[in-house]
Amino acid sequence: MVLLVAAALFSVGLYGALSQQVVVMVMMGLELMLNGLILAAAGFWWFLAPDPSGQVLLLVIIAAMTVEMAMGFAVATMLHRVRRVDMTDLARDLSR
Amino acid sequence: MSDPSVTVVPAFWALGAAGLLGLLASVAAIVDGLLSARAAGAAAGTGWSRPAGEVARLMWQRRRATVAADTLLWRTGGAGLLVMALMIVTVVPLGAWTLFDLDVGVVWFNAMDVLAWAFVWLTGWGANSAHALVGGYRFLAYGLAYELPLMFALVAPAVAASSLNVGTIAAAQQGLWFVTWMPLAFLVFCMGVLAIAMWGPFSAAVAPDVAGGVSAELSGVDRLLFLGGRYALLAAGAAFAVPMFLGGGAGPLLPAWLWVLVKTLALLAALVWLRRRLPVVRPDLFMEIGWVVLLPAVLLQDLLVAGIALARS
Amino acid sequence: MVSHVAFWVLAVVAVLAGAAVFIVNSMARASYALAVSFIGVGLQVLLLQQNYVGVVTILMMVMEMAVMAVYMIMFMGMNPALMPMSMVHDKRHALAVSIGVFVLLAAGTLIVPWPTRRGTPPADVTMTLGEELMGPKMLVMAAVGVVMAATIVAGVVLAAHQTRYDRFGDDLRRRPADDPQPGGVGR
């Protein structure tokens, strides 16, 4: 049951990450996906194998989230400063 | 997971806790009224009725509306501070009784105090007014500077008692109060409480130079809730400092719960008094103070405490 | 029983708030909808008896969203409450993909024969988590710490536009440094 909720959160996040144009909104989609992951991991831990080492995974997810945020903001700030853009479609040097 | 020295009381006592918090906040407001009357040069002893008058005035006052205000967020922010204060006192043991014996009570306090970032900024944003938004941003700037020192200040008692449970931490200082050997952490904690309540030196977010900042457009009941929330946060912060640094219910003669109240009141009065004694620090200046001075200082304090705790165990 | 009801209420709140992030057209509302979603999940994790992780989730995420809101408004620079707009691309495919993923994951959760629970939860989850982190899983903690430090440095390097020559002058002798936002120490 927990996993169903987690799956729903993950999917909503996926929708956001795929469809949004603005960098910050894409990051919010990613956050939502990780949110689902936290819930899923907590559910797995509690219902399947509640031994202490499993919780370390949760902390790693939270840490990954903060790193993602920090780097995302840094890149977004740089993009904005250098090019005055905030849309993913406008930052596509690598696709040329 | 719970400590035997603490009994959990049934949930309906939350009403009692709320009443007690309200009482403490009113006392703080009355003390402030007395002090401001004295500062204004009125005869000693006047001004105590000022909070009651203010409450009556604000209840009477009509709500002011602004153009294109985000009412939902605005109201949430205004009422949120009071809710936050209530959530904080749920983990504070009153002598032997507590409402919520959470094994990570210290982290709980931290999670609740971070909500201030959200609520204060939302109050500033919701009104759709430039001055209010400036106030909101000032608070966030303070937040970035005070939050990490505050977190590490809370680490010190937790390390010393080797527990995150507030009751256990209070029980660990029956012999010697933590404030005696971690004074810096205590001072930084008090600073954090002042900052959360936008009080005294940290009142730039509601300062007169931006027409009241966050509270510029608040009126009537909204303003009452916001002001009450600030006093309640001050009271809740003082109440939380008692089990963390001031020995909880430890003390001669009087019962434990009374000692908790006495200590809370004393600290609260001191915090209220500080309002007129310290200048307001500018958020941009405080940013560097917070990161370059306070954070390393608190980390050193933590190291010292950890060393002592290791040596004692 | 009470905890079941609480769990489902929180689940509905979390998912709806998550969806609201992409529906409402106000930056502030979107960020704080995400914060509400995180608070819901944090409380659910609390219900699953993992107090430390639950409370830390709430702590971190509310803080993050407060900062997030500032960035949103900084980059988008207008109040969309006054001018609603759509900022999506390729909405239909995204919707199809995410619904597909949800069906897949949901089917997985319902069809997979879950094994029965192994072991019992420890009496003090937080304590064991701490001992685990400082004992056998020390490497994780160390790695996370290093990654965090690297992130701080990299983030500042990417975002700051001033080099030390801008701050201290060409011969690095200018004191105090020329900062756009003067600090409070030594000035």
UniProtKB/TrEMBL annotation, chain B:
One of its GO terms (biological process) is aerobic respiration. InterPro entries: NADH_UbQ_OxRdtase_su1/FPO (IPR001694). GO terms for molecular function: NADH dehydrogenase activity. It is found in: Cell membrane; Membrane. Keywords: Membrane, NAD, Transmembrane, Transmembrane helix. The chain crosses the membrane at residues 12-31, 72-100, 106-127, 139-164, 176-199, 231-250, 256-274, 286-311. Pfam families: NADHdh (PF00146). GO terms for cellular component: plasma membrane. It is a multi-pass membrane protein. It comes from the Bacteria. Belongs to the complex I subunit 1 family. PANTHER family: NADH DEHYDROGENASE SUBUNIT 1, NADH-UBIQUINONE OXIDOREDUCTASE CHAIN 1. This is NADH-quinone oxidoreductase subunit H.
From TrEMBL, chain C:
It is a multi-pass membrane protein. It catalyses: a quinone + NADH + 5 H(+)(in) = a quinol + NAD(+) + 4 H(+)(out). The chain crosses the membrane at residues 6-24, 31-47, 53-73, 94-114, 138-160. It comes from the Bacteria. GO terms for molecular function: NADH dehydrogenase (ubiquinone) activity; quinone binding. It is an enzyme of class 7 (translocase). Signal peptide: none annotated. Keywords: Cell membrane, Membrane, NAD, Quinone, Transmembrane, Transmembrane helix, Ubiquinone. Pfam families: Oxidored_q3. Its main location: membrane. GO terms for cellular component: plasma membrane. InterPro entries: NADH_UbQ/plastoQ_OxRdtase_su6, Nuo/plastoQ_OxRdtase_6_NuoJ. Its EC number is 7.1.1.-. It is found in: Cell membrane. Belongs to the complex I subunit 6 family. NDH-1 shuttles electrons from NADH, via FMN and iron-sulfur (Fe-S) centers, to quinones in the respiratory chain. Couples the redox reaction to proton translocation (for every two electrons transferred, four hydrogen ions are translocated across the cytoplasmic membrane), and thus conserves the redox energy in a proton gradient. This is NADH-quinone oxidoreductase subunit J. It comes from Micromonospora costi. The lineage of its organism: Bacteria, Bacillati, Actinomycetota, Actinomycetes, Micromonosporales.
